[in-house]
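so my prof wants the structure for this chain in the C-alpha cells format not the other one, which i didnt know existed until like an hour ago. anyway here's the sequence
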Amino acid sequence: MAESDNAGPAWDEDLAVELVGSLVVAAITRLGHDGKFIQQDQMFGRVIVAEPQRGVCLQLEGSRTGDFHWLPPATDFFRRASPGVYRLKSTGEEVADPDFLVLYSVKAPPPSWKIEGEENSGDKNPR
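here's what i got, hopefully its the right format
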C-alpha cells in the first residue's frame, strides 16, 4: 500500500481499481465525542467510484437499493472477505460471498468544534 503524505489513512491505487464493481459489506460504528458507542450502521453494495479525493462510493443493495453511501478515501480499511454468507445484524439481510469487508469508526467532534465558512455542496450524485 502507498503511504499517505500526512501519515493518515493510505490510498492504494491498484486496490482502488480492483474495488470498482466489487461487492462490499460495510459497518460504520458511530461514537460520541467522548468515545461512547452510539450506533452501528451496516450496509452492502457495489463500489461505483473509488477516488483518492472523494472516497469510495457504494451503490447500495438490499433494503437500501437506490441509495448511495460514501466511505472515506482510504483503501487500508478494506479487507478481502472469506467466502460465506454474512448477516447484517441491523436488518437481518444476508449477503453471499462479498468481495470485501470494511469496518471503521466515526467519532463525533466535541460540541465546541465548528467549521466556519464550509457549505454543504449537496453533491448526492456520485458521478
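also thought this was worth mentioning. The first helix runs from residue 13 to 19.
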